[in-house]
Amino acid sequence: MRTLIATAALVIISSAPAVAQETPASPSPTPSAAQGVEIPDFATKSWIVADAESGDVLAGQNPDEQLPMASTLKTLTALTLLPRLQYDSTYEARATETLTEGAHVGVLAGNHYTVAELLHGMLMRSGNDAAVALADAYGYQRTLDAMNAEAQRIGASSTVAMSPNGLDKPGQVSTAADLAQIYRVAMRDERLQEILTAKQFDFPGQPPKDPTKPRADFTIFNNDSLLNSDYPGFMGGKSGFTSQAGRTYVAGADQNGRKLVVALLGIGGGTTQTARQLLDWSFANVDRMTPIAQLPAVTGESDITAAPAGVADPEDIAPTPTDEQAQLAAASVADAAVRTAGEALAGAPTSVDPQEAAQSAIDAAQQAGSTAASVGTGLSADMIVAGLQSPPFAGAPVEDQPAGRGLIATVLIGLFKAMMWLLLFLGIAVVLLRIRAVRRINRRRAEQERMRTRATGTPAADSTPRRVPSRTG
């Protein structure tokens, strides 16, 4: 049954439209490492291997070249906000956060989330909506200022943060060396280690209309393939992709007492496949490599007192996306409904009942659809999101907000596509289950006839009723 579910899910996922086309990397011909160690071509513009504990740089290629970093920037967001926001404090999401472009975890306007839940959504699912919600919870511009100050404090001085989620912004850059430094400092917080190595997590869903009923939480799965393949000693990683940055990745692993961190920018091949090759090569040669550089030393901790989420300046929130950005966000969320449903089915255990698996897919699609609905209604004066009425978002007068007629049409088309894919999957599942049942019945009949033949010594008469042709054909 698991094979059936996974196969059908792959049909759905493989048919989802691509968001962007990456540009193949053009690696420099002069990577550097210890003398005498042969370095393969990892087809990556910039990469680094460093000792996570000592900061020794063991190998690299253009490690100090400033490049866009995509969602690997979220490691700096986490490093910055973990000590500044109380982990268990709650925050009420705003409609503008649901309009964030790119990947969504499913933040709903008016819903309440703990800082811990938003961090899980931001890092496990690379939710741009969760990243913006976290930034708003501390103060959006205040968060960006703190991120840049934190980068300078730990020695990642070539990093410039202009968003909390890594979406392309003019002038927003980092380096492979900086990302490795940010990662190894951030991993000192055990909470971050727990998040990056969690394979699944229950994320808050749509609140019930009836307050006596439980909230419709849903399961999110970590999208890191190295974690899900149980890479030896894996300490967690964060991938990213945008049209300008291409594929990016930062991760670490602990093998035979050595903790290594790798960071890659402008990956020309598969993200985790290239990272696995780099980690495998690094651990195979680590004893032969002499440090060629040193990441900055970080002494002491910054003197910061954690504050409750949502007590910052109410005017210091993310800017309202343009109508074009909002339509892109709606389309990405609608397409995510199909992928989320496929993941729910692919992750089902082998013993799950087919009807339960199908219901899980429907629930997942409804959750993604409810997020899309919040995008579609996010610009209205009286927003009805997930069955709750919430006030209009701050930041712009109601009369100045765009009408969003094209946005609503985009959302409806996306939801229709998602439901069609679900119906297709259910139809395939029913047909395959029926074929399996018929084969089981035929095998049972054949076994019964063999037993009769053994008992009587003569072949059993064919008991299968023969069809009499009708006059109508």
Write the layout of secondary structure elements.
Blueprint lengths: L1 H13 L17 E2 L10 E8 L4 E6 L12 H8 L8 E3 L2 H4 L13 E3 H10 L3 H11 L1 H14 L22 H11 L3 H7 L3 E7 L9 E6 L3 H4 L5 E9 L3 E10 L2 E10 L3 H15 L7 E2 L28 H24 L7 H24 L5 E3 L2 E3 L14 H52 L17
Antiparallel strand pairs: 1-3, 2-3, 2-10, 3-11, 4-5, 6-7, 8-9, 9-10, 12-13
What does this structure look like?
This protein is of the alpha+beta class and 473 residues long. It has a domain at 23-294: Beta-lactamase. Helices cover 42% and strands 15% of the residues. It contains 13 helices and 13 strands. The chain has helices at 2-14, 74-81, 95-98, 115-124, 128-138, 140-153, 176-186, 190-196, 225-228, 271-285, 323-346, 354-377, 405-456; strands spanning 32-33, 44-51, 56-61, 90-92, 112-114, 200-206, 216-221, 234-242, 246-255, 258-267, 293-294, 383-385, 388-390. The strands form 4 sheets. Strands 1, 2, 3, 8, 9, 10 and 11 form a 7-stranded antiparallel sheet that branches. A two-stranded antiparallel sheet has the order 4-5. Helix 1 packs antiparallel against helix 11 (323-346) and helix 1 (2-14) runs antiparallel to helix 13. The longest helix has 52 residues, at 405-456. The radius of gyration is 26 Å and the shape is globular. Mean pLDDT is 79; it is low at 1-29, 336-341 and 343-405.
